[in-house]
Amino acid sequence: MPVYGWCASGVIAAGLLLPAFARADIALPIGEQAWQPRLFELEGVPEGEAARLEITQVPGWGASLAVGPWRAGRYGARFETVERLKILNGQVRGVYRTEDIEPFAAAIWVIFHRADGRRRTDTFKLAPSPGWKEFAFPIRRPPPDTQAVSLGFGLIQKTEGRVLFTNLSVSTEPFRVEFPESPGTVTRFPPPVRLAKTGRIRLTEHDGAWWLVSPTGQPFYSIGADGPYFDPESDLATGREFLEVMRRLRFNSLAGWTSVPGWAALNKAMISEGSQPLVMFRALESGTSHDDFDRLVPADNHSFPDPFDPRWEEWLRNHVRGIASLVRGEPWFAALFADNEVSHRELYRHLWTPNCSAALRTFLQAKYGDIGALNSAWGSGFRSFDDLVAQRPDPVLQHGPMYEDLFAFSREVVRKYAETAARVIREELPGHIVFSNRLMLDDVTYWLKYLDLYAVFDGIAVNMYPANLSPGLNDNERMILELVHEKTGKPVLISEWSVPALDSGLYDNPDKLDWSYDEAVDTQTERARQAARIVIDYYNMPFVVGAHWFFWNDFDSDKRQANRGLFLTSGQPWIELQVALGRAAQLTGAGTVEIVPPRRKSSEWRPRSDRPATRRRKPR
Fold it and tell me: 544-549 and 222-225 as β-strands: parallel, antiparallel, unpaired?
């Protein structure tokens, strides 16, 4: 088996062109003795049907690892190195090509093996690329007592496409990303000076770019964070201090987890005093209401609700009414997010709640007429449609007539969910914007299949935490946002994002690592620079109408720690970050949004003799 060395011209590392120089590269030969195919939890499906993993010869490139299609199992389908490597810090490099796969479907795994048998896995996701493309990802931050590393190459999401890898190597050269001090250039055309007044906040497209528009006709881009809790009856002064921080950062909006009672009271006070309030958004979250209605996809606090269960619509209406009682008709209230991060993962396998399965029975009977026709298509032996529902067939294999029918019905589930949510919110909170549920990035290859159904909303919300392996957004992240806009025709709002850093000290305990660990840069200086670059990158996408930072304070609990905040848990500011965010926001033109016409102060009125002369009418 020939060994293919590394090209001499340099390597594109997550968007950066690194100069070529002598380095300790170790080629990874591609042969059957060196690689083992790995599949997990196949649930009775033979490996040959679950996925295709092969070592193949590619003209011009030689031996390559080929993975896909992948149709059954969990956690991924991949080739792993048989021999464990002693390189605990360095890089993994190679060349890859994709065929008909979605963003975030192809991946590379770096698996750290510890002396006590535990493992930690870093996963790096690849953008689709129809042509051969170089990559480099870090081997870094080994846990204590790590003894060796193994590498995996393949698919992390099910797909009918495939990915190929060749010219694989590892290097002891540290993986570095240079985060430039400059946040980049603003390329988005500035907003129009003034649009029509409507008395409410709305969305509009103007000359190819989308904007939010204030009640007085001022186009604006929403930059903000979640407003912290304070008691409006006893501590409005604390709320004013929070508001001053927002103003200093040039944030003009309160994000989706803002405490409504306190900030609604403060906004009303600001208007009564002749000042401009902050624009407010608010998110609904069905995932934490565990006993109020049935759920489909089991995913802790991200479970997909059963939209055919009438209790869900009742719960939704009651929750919207509670918020609407404080904000209905207020000129500063922008929008509700219909839900938080509900999981679409394999929704077609989770249709068996009482109300959903009854709707499925009706759906299948309408298509086939009688159970014999369905059995002929599925190759099954159900006695009746009631028998089918009772047996709960599970399309473990993402392929074939059963899967196709149950997937088609899962689209009806999402259609019902989206249409009901949009209708109920508009009925209870008329005149305000309705954004979709906040789509989560880890679920992207699943919700992309349903994305067109979310066009019933005024805009689409995406929670996107950048990988931070390159300055600004990477190709995968840009592609996903472009697909969201393309498939729905609607503007996009980034409803959560942030950048963490290791030197916060919040990632030192390996037993309390937050999922944000993989995205952490090294220092607060890098954090500030990357955050500013992300602000500009989001702003430059003409269909993005805002980006909301998550969260106000860092997380530090008994279970997890995370450097997500504008402030430490002590309340001290992350000064570099705040300065950088404020400067980037200034580059976008963000600032105070004119919610109501500014009052003219009495000192601004001039005596009659000082007023400009006016023409007198000529006598007739």
Answer: parallel
**Three-state secondary structure along 414-443?**
HHHHHHHHHHHHHHHCCCCEEEEEEEEHHH
Contact yes or no for 547/528 (Cβ under 8 A): no
* Sequence ranges of the domains in the chain: 11-171, 179-283+464-598
CATH homologous superfamily for the domain 11-171: Galactose-binding domain-like (2.60.120.260)
497 token code pair: 């994002």
Return the SS3 of 97.
strand
Strand ordering across the sheet containing 219-220? 202-206, 209-213, 219-220
Q: Is 160 helix (H, G, I), strand (E, B) or coil?
A: coil
Identify the pLDDT of residue 615: 40
Distances (CA, A) of 81 to 84, 135, 148, 149, 392: 7, 18, 12, 9, 39
- Is domain 179-283+464-598 in CATH 3.40.50.620, yes or no? no
- Cα–Cα distance measured from residue 494 to residue 472, given in angstroms and rounded to the nearest whole number: 15
pLDDT band at 601 (very low <50, low <70, confident <90, very high): low
Distance between CA atoms of residues 110 and 43, nearest Å: 26
Is 499's pLDDT higher than 70? yes
- Is pTM beyond 0.85? Reply is yes
The overall longest dimension of the chain from CA atoms, in Å, is: 106
Residue 13 per-residue DSSP state: E
Return the beta strands (E) in 338-443 as ranges. Answer: 433-440
Omega before 310 cis (within 30°)? no
Kindly state the DSSP code that residue 595 receives in the 8-state scheme.
Answer: S
The angle formed by the CA atoms of residues 362, 368 and 372, to the nearest 5 degrees, is 115
Contact (CB, 8 A) for 67 and 105? no
